């Protein structure tokens, strides 16, 4: 997910995307613990996407 895409989203869309990414992160962590994860790079991508969304959400909250 690119930062420009994230900045163009509404706070409701960001909240929904954050929830989906957290679910995916949980599933990836569970797969990693059992040794079933196929795309190991996806773990870091999801973590960074969550941080990007949280950053943009916080910036939008302070601007309002």
TrEMBL record:
InterPro entries: Ribosomal_protein_uL29, Ribosomal_uL29, Ribosomal_uL29_CS, Ribosomal_uL29_sf. Belongs to the universal ribosomal protein uL29 family. It comes from the Bacteria. Pfam families: Ribosomal_L29. GO terms for biological process: translation. One of its GO terms (molecular function) is structural constituent of ribosome. Keywords: Ribonucleoprotein, Ribosomal protein. This is Large ribosomal subunit protein uL29. GO terms for cellular component: cytosolic large ribosomal subunit. It comes from Phenylobacterium haematophilum.
